[in-house]
Design a protein that fits this description.
alpha/beta, 37% helix, 18 helices, 563 residues, Rossmann fold, 2 domains, Nitrilase/N-carbamoyl-D-aminoacid amidohydrolase, homodimer
Chain lengths: 563, 563
Amino acid sequence: MLRVALAQINPTVGGLDGNRRKIAGTIQKARESRSDIVVFPELALTGYPPEDLLLRDQFVRDNLKALAQLAPQTKGITAVVGFVDRDKNRKLYNAAAVIADGKLKGIYRKEKLPNYGVFDEKRYFTPGENNPVFSFGKIIFGVNICEDIWADDGPYHCQAKAGAQILINLSSSPYHAGKIKQREELLKKRAKAMGVFVCYVNLIGGQDELVFDGGSLILSPKGKKIASAGQFQEGLVFADLKITPQRKSKSLKNKKVICVSKANPAVKGKAVELPAIRALGAVEEIYEALVLGTRDYIKKNGFQKAVIGLSGGIDSALVTAIAVDAIGRENVVGVSMPSPYSSAETKADAKRMAHNLSIRFIEISIEHIFKSYLETLEKEFVGQTCDIAEENLQARIRGNLLMALSNKFGWLVLTTGNKSEIATGYCTLYGDMAGGFAVIKDVPKTTVYKLAEFYNARRKKEIIAHSIILRAPTAELKEGQKDQDTLPPYDILDKILKDYVELDKSPAQLNKKTGNPKLIKDVIRMVDRNEYKRRQSPPGVKITPRAFGKDRRLPITNCYREY
Amino acid sequence: MLRVALAQINPTVGGLDGNRRKIAGTIQKARESRSDIVVFPELALTGYPPEDLLLRDQFVRDNLKALAQLAPQTKGITAVVGFVDRDKNRKLYNAAAVIADGKLKGIYRKEKLPNYGVFDEKRYFTPGENNPVFSFGKIIFGVNICEDIWADDGPYHCQAKAGAQILINLSSSPYHAGKIKQREELLKKRAKAMGVFVCYVNLIGGQDELVFDGGSLILSPKGKKIASAGQFQEGLVFADLKITPQRKSKSLKNKKVICVSKANPAVKGKAVELPAIRALGAVEEIYEALVLGTRDYIKKNGFQKAVIGLSGGIDSALVTAIAVDAIGRENVVGVSMPSPYSSAETKADAKRMAHNLSIRFIEISIEHIFKSYLETLEKEFVGQTCDIAEENLQARIRGNLLMALSNKFGWLVLTTGNKSEIATGYCTLYGDMAGGFAVIKDVPKTTVYKLAEFYNARRKKEIIAHSIILRAPTAELKEGQKDQDTLPPYDILDKILKDYVELDKSPAQLNKKTGNPKLIKDVIRMVDRNEYKRRQSPPGVKITPRAFGKDRRLPITNCYREY
């Protein structure tokens, strides 16, 4: 019987000391619970992804030093810890250290390096070769890292062939909506196909554009879930694996077996209790991703408070609700900045939203400043008709006021633009796009509505007022303006955006689907033309299979026209 | 005797039709000059780098269609054209098509894929294998692509072994200062070591953060430069290679020889004339890179005119001079936006600069608007001391005014921040950082001075006034402010920045060099803390070995502290 502990922790990129202490503390807890082995996520020591920190020699050395400092913490227990390994030719590896009884017993180097989507691992790492498997007495186990278990020809094949009865996978697998199901299905498939226990540990936490959702679990060789750590929270979960030591003596070429402990693991007395983990609903999961991503961006960057422009619309209402859940109502400030085009209703809704959340509320009219701009520009604008220039001015005055509050009081500005707006460029650069973190930048408008409904339902209270939810979306930058004067209805738009942005469908395919080539052309043109705006956008939480940012790298200068 | 033409063209990313027409026209010209073969740069058909356009099936298909349309243009001549190849498993290759007499004769697929610095080729491409060599009668030649010739174990070895007397390299090699020397030395080394002619063709043009400088050339087997196309300009250069057909019949495993033409090339009568190319000076080269990068960003993105905030300082003076050289004085507008902190001298210098360049000049005081902000914020700011918030407000008012002009008249805003400022965060997000293109964002302040001196010397006239060059740098955002109140002297700062940003030196190494740990700590802290600003910066021309942007990918959320 082997007692395995999965350490679903939240490390910080670059925070080597803090991460090391967190890992050491968790090893201590796992030992107290009489675990034989405690497993940490991929690159737990450095945080994931460390990006170009990896190019700094001292960073890699400091990470190796931190690993060495961990070794003495492993008396009487085995720990598997993700770190950056370096060989004598100074090549780097995304690696797992197997440490036991105060000593580094062996190292596994990741073989399959993802270099797509948000991943750039081939920029830094060399793929591992000739990796060993490991043993406790007569029990053999294989270690592999994230992508290794996704690849159809991954190293788990030869680990199982070498006699491994357990596969341990260290992951840093970023979240998108519904990904946990994909992961669980894949891991089940692997467990059953190989006939082994699978111990999967994923980290949690926000890191710039990414949020990691955890979902660490242990599966039996029949694909049954034995333990699970849930999503978006740190956790240390245990399971007792009923394994009959049956070391096969198949000698595989290049497959070294490193003995971690000579004795077979003993029965531990009372079995560990498995906490009941409730699976999150589809919308709830996205909400939790946004809260964690926002909290970690704020906290890990050293901010205490956040400030949000409250327009009385649904986007800013939702972002404020998320911010309150992320850092507490006492740390969130809502600012209403009405103009002559703001209606009494939206002004009242902004105020009510702040009241419902019990946050500090500031109202600053932009009328006086707007007038001063128009007067100052009068000479240059003479004879010109009022257009987008005047609309953007208002958005930019608001951006400036929020940034002035940010600069004066040290509050982080959270922006409130959603994915539908950012995709089509229905937003103002340096205006509503101005801020440190774009909470819902990857959330399509139709999902914004679902999140608002979910939020009220969870609170069993109309915190986001129905008037906000029901009002036709408007930027209120000119008289009687509605989003739908410029954009197609959001339910139609969001479907096209998903197909074009996330799935790379061609106009021909979209025309077939919608039967409306004019609409498709208009939408694609908007998306293509606004790459320059997105390039200057703050980061925000990725919740879809393809977010704007490093997940989608299109040139700004781009003369390709498919339509 | 083989007549080779190198087509140093300026394609546009995604502009398949335009690029195809440009290539067809160039093939026509090369045929008129009785060339046997005309060579185009790497991915000439798609432009470089096409980035995630490559993930779109239709884009790849359209590129293959464009290639097919080129074939009929090659009657009586051989063309080697960079394009995206796709195999039956839908894998993509960075490839060169060898087309002759109306037919696609063969394809070379790039073997060495760069995935460092600004390059992400492993994100898209599969490395080529089992590539052929090609022949004209008894003359064998090898084709390879960019990185292939840089790698010590590149495919040129076995191409030479297979009997190639000529190596043709198609490149899209981005510029940084002095790189042309590195390139020429490398190519000479390869020519001499392999005992072959080297025909190297590189593209020119600006593409977002990158500028390509050309420098195409032909070297003899002794490493002598036979022809050269110069930098930063399109060109079609010819050379007659005196080759004795001497096909070696070494049969190399996997090395197929594709016959392009059965006949040996004949003597063409009058030898081609080699244009005299003057090598650019070190500072001149950077200046030309900035002009071309700026021109192409403006033109390829469909803009006619640009607008620049003229402060009376050296950065905006230089950027304006560059803009005038890029798009003509009639297309550049300078805007002076004085505040109460602007001195009479800087105001006069701004005006004089516009006058010296004969550009349109607008003066808009920000005083009235600034006052309206202070009045509006009075209640919130009561009891607070005047600080960075008020300074940034002024910069942001200027940013807003430029954007208002941009929105009203369709002018592109060029920003004027230099690398020293952007590295240390001595700049205002949404203020002086607001704009479409950051012309000198990769130019250290000390190089800004050199460029200004070079500019005046070239014009033999004090266009950038000495008063501008000699004035102590100041942002003029508060009374008596000087850059050096906040930053170390630029000559000291720029050396530290080069070591830290471009060379990844550690604080320990820098302390040793400077003997000033406090200074190093301050500078590194400034650089680290301001990653969030740089992430929201517009693109600008890379001129150093490591620019901010996709060349240097550091996390914003980053708790690594080396000091």
